[in-house]
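Hi R.,

Here's the chain you asked about this morning:
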Amino acid sequence: MQQRCFSIGIAALALVALATPAHAERKPPYYASLKASKARMRTGPGRNYPTNWFYQRRGLPIKVLASYGAWVKVRDPDGAEGWMQANLLDDKRTAIVAGGVAELHSSPSGDSHISWRAAPGVVGKISACSGGWCWFDAGGRAGYVEQARIWGTDPGETVR
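And the predicted structure, written out as tokens:
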């Protein structure tokens, strides 16, 4: 009987380990994005805390500042901080155009051809950042953008 309880306990622990999202193993701070189309930011790490922001934008970049069990403390592009359930986040890197219009270039150089311009608030996937430039793809319109023109990476950060 004791052996059976031990085996059930080990199996339960294995299931919990498999159910833990990959980003739960990462050490903050790091960037993630909203996986859910609707997400609540709360004042504390639990459903009993009031909602201070409600998000309806899948892919929005979020900076994870700390973790507490199944909850992570986050900062949004506007600087608001609060807590979200970790399972609402995705490890896919995204960024949002910050400030004014951002020019997207055909190569990582300010002298290269401007492929298109992105308005403030446009969210896109970033797949590579180095040397102060990031490859930014917003719905199939892509190009290199100066890293300083987007929120979702730290200055000088290399993203692969």
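The mean pLDDT is 89.

Let me know if you need anything else.
M.
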